[in-house]
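Weekly sync notes, structure subgroup
Attendees: PM, AL, DS (notes)

Item 1: joint prediction request from the bench team. They want all two components modeled as one assembly rather than separately. Inputs as received:
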Amino acid sequence: MVMINGQGPVLGTTLFSLTNEWQQRLYSLEQMLAKVAALGLGPTVEVVGFQSLREFPDVSDTFAGYFRDLLARFGLTPSCLGGNSDVGRRKGRLMTPDELLAYTERQIISAAKLGFPVFRFQLSAGAAMLERLAPIGEKYGVHIACELHSPLAVDHPEVVEVRELFDRLRTPFLGFIPDFSTSMTRIPDGYWGNLRRAGAPEGLIEVVKEIWHTDQPTSAKFGALAEARAWFGAGPAVMGQLNTVMTMFGRMPLEGWAQLLPYARHIHGKYYHVDESGCEPSIPYAELLALLKRAGYHGTISAEWEGQAFTEAPIGFEQVQRWHAMVKRLLAA
Amino acid sequence: MGASVQIVEDNSLQTTKDGYVIGLRLNWYRSLPVSCIEKVALTLDGQPVEPAALRLEVNGKQFSIDAMEDAVEEFWFVQDTAWLHVLQPGRVSAGEAHTVEAEVALRFPYIMIGQGKFLTIPTQCTANQVARAAAREG
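Output from the run, pasted for the record:
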């Protein structure tokens, strides 16, 4: 965890928010970091290794030196390096646990070389793998933290199993990265645009809103969505979008955050759209930030814009600027 | 996430000494190993190209369709073009207009959707391009 002043959360940006700009080759890594700094979107920077770093899962000493120099020059601090559990990289079979351990250790070594204190890993790796990774994290001084976003929630069996491991080992080198998408109050407007483009009639859209707001288990919601699709005679493209609604947008009650925060090594400030009035209509930012303040959370939090799921427009920088203005205003309140 | 580019790169059709190449872009937010490319297929002016004539060039290395699944350590970087070579000398000449249709299916090796099954997304893209003279090595 980066603790810069010990007072409240330390803000920053993940370059994932700039996926559209990056894919469209509008910026090099150096140009992107320079702009993050110039717009005041630091002081911390998060990077997805397999997105931003050409040599990943390894990084050379030359690149590591170059990267550290860049951050120092721009006055930025590394927060979290995103890694992946690519267990399916071989076509015919899964990676063995030993292969996955070796593949992950390479990524953790890269995090250490680049100066990232936290390594984002996937909860799907499971408790047994995390237990084997803990001493590796300790060896390299890197905290290994599992991303916890929708459809996972505090009471999900996989999450409970990992929490039990954390409680048993009591090591600071394992923890969570909770994501604000776990606790949404509304489905983002951009999603309905995707659903309409896939051919969903308005009647189905109204039913989907109703199903999402109910408190039945996720599995029951999948079934209800499939039935609704059949009733309205919508095609398979619509079904794909309907499954997205359940996996991307969570409805965990805010009380769940109080249980998660003791394990938080970093936070993903997920959002889909901050509007002209400076609000994110689908995520309760005021309540979430008040909760972080009350809990005394003073770790890092990244602006993580995921609106690229709904638009190819390169508006990431504008959206991240709006997030920082919104979050600073709410934290000062 | 990552659909902000078309898989057939604009103005990328070029002749080579062995045939022609077309540029492909990765339409996902992160780099993937070549072994996670489940399918690459190409149609030129409505005629399917036989898979044996295709080579995919990533990081300066060329892979036949059959060899791709073993390339677990060759990563296709998000910002890079992968060059799809077609070994058909003389099939395309500089200055000619052609319709290319590419299909690429990507397996996301970290998104398991069942025992041993991973989210796999196919994308098709059709483009009309005028071939340029060999700017790349065959």
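Discussion: The two ends of chain A are 25 Å apart (CA to CA).
Action: AL to compare against the crosslinking data before next sync.
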